[in-house]
Design goal:
The complex is a heterodimer of chains A (about 120) and B (about 260). Chain A has four helices and no strands. By secondary structure, chain A is an all-alpha fold. The termini of chain A are far apart. Chain B is of the alpha/beta class and about 260 residues long. Chain B has a single domain (about 5-245), classed as Spore Coat Polysaccharide Biosynthesis Protein SpsA, Chain A (Alpha-Beta Complex). Chain B is about 40% helix and about 15% strand. Chain B contains ten helices and seven strands. The radius of gyration of chain B is 18 Å and the shape is globular. The chains are: A mainly alpha (about 120), B alpha/beta (about 260). Chains A and B meet through α1, α2 and α4 of A and α10 of B.
């Protein structure tokens, strides 16, 4: 059985995480789109913290002797998932950033060229 | 080509529509098959409309087809999704002084001959946003069961939130007056925006009305909401609606009274 204290601490931490996520969305510093994975993480952590039997059976299933370790394994898994997710987001952003820079540079050039042709503005 | 001559001439005969500048915003993502006919249809039944196609980073010839029809075209540098595309169109409407903006999707599912219907309540100043609803008796729109359930659930939730009966929260066939244009130009939801936009309108104390319309089957292409994404979409929208409850919105300005 998972020691009670670990359960309480894990559940409390998960609740704090969920509240922080909520507050970030509310104040528009986090878009819903990017909050979903965080919310899933928080909810899984909360469920595992409260439902102690589940954590034990997961630990048994994968052969972890000390159930709280399973909690940390899972937490690490979700952190990896989040990092991977953000890598894809950054890739997309840098791609879009390149396109923007190119479009801007082309526009600027075209503007400069048309300036040379006629100075009537 | 299609300079709105009517806007230069003062409204002499008291015919209100002639004095209003109307813009049809056509978001289009890879709609080369249908966009030209959509533009033609809008023009043929609404002569004084300017048509603006927002090409949402298409990789086909959507832009060329629209330009060939003489429409105004904004080409986004990359795909922003329907929310970003529509907001771009509304920002254009706002900065170019249009009085009314009507959204007509580039996939031809909206019937331009019904534009006068969704325009009506705006011209009579009975609403700031008018939405063409597929579920008010007209037409025989029958979505797959799962989608129908999702649409009904969202309609129920939104109706509760705004304390007014709303039947179709996902319809993109909409008309907005200056107030709604200004609101959406400044603040428009991401991704699939219609549900949140509906609630936003009420939060800002604007008036919204639904009118019955029928929708056609899509001319070409798929729904932007595929089955794979619909669960994600539902969760995201519900989350946005929930969090939105806890946001504070500015009270309406003096001019709104």
């Amino acid at each position: 059985m998972t020691p009670l204290r670990v359960s309480v601490v894990a559940a409390a931490a998960a609740l704090v995480l969920l509240f922080v996520i909520f507050e970030l969305i509310r104040s528009r510093r986090l878009q819903e789109r990017y909050a979903m994975l965080w919310l899933l993480t928080g909810i899984v952590m909360l469920v595992l913290g409260l439902w102690r039997g589940l954590l034990s059976s997961i630990a048994d299933l994968v052969g972890i002797a000390y159930p709280p370790s399973a909690l940390f394994v899972l937490a690490a898994f979700f952190i990896l998932l989040l990092l991977l997710h953000y890598s894809t987001v950054i890739s997309k952003l840098s791609d879009q950033n390149r396109i923007l820079a190119q479009r801007l540079a082309l526009l600027e050039t075209r503007l400069g060229e048309s300036h040379g042709d006629s100075d009537s503005r | 080509m299609s300079e709105p001559v009517s806007t230069i001439v003062p409204a002499a005969g008291g015919r209100v529509p002639a004095a209003l500048r109307c813009l049809a915003v056509v978001p289009a993502y890879n709609e080369e098959a249908t966009v030209a006919s959509v533009i033609r249809e809008i023009r043929s039944c609404n002569e004084d409309f300017d048509v603006l196609v927002v090409d949402d980073g298409s990789s086909d010839r959507t832009r060329e087809r629209a330009l060939a029809e003489g429409a105004r075209v904004i080409r986004l540098p990359y795909n922003l999704g329907i929310g970003g595309a529509v907001q771009t169109g509304l920002q254009y409407a706002s900065s170019h002084g249009f009085d009314v903006a009507v959204q007509v999707d580039g996939d031809a599912q909206h019937d331009p001959t019904e534009i006068p219907k969704i325009l009506g309540p705006i011209l009579e100043d009975r609403a700031d946003l008018v939405v063409g609803s597929r579920f008010l008796g007209e037409g025989e729109y029958e979505p797959p069961l799962a989608r129908l359930l999702g649409i009904k659930l969202l309609a129920r939730i939104v109706s509760l939130l705004v304390r007014q009966r709303v039947t179709d929260t996902t319809s993109g066939f909409r008309a907005a007056n200056r107030r709604a244009i200004a609101l959406f130009a400044a603040d428009y939801p991401h991704d699939y925006p219609e549900v949140e936009a509906t609630v936003l309108v009420f939060r800002h104390r604007l008036r919204m009305l639904e009118v019955p319309v029928h929708m056609r089957l899509r001319g070409a292409g798929e729904s932007s909401i595929t089955f794979r994404w619909s669960a994600y979409y539902m969760v995201k929208v519900l989350l946005a609606l929930f969090v939105g409850l806890f946001r504070r919105y500015p009270t309406p300005r003096e001019e709104d009274k």
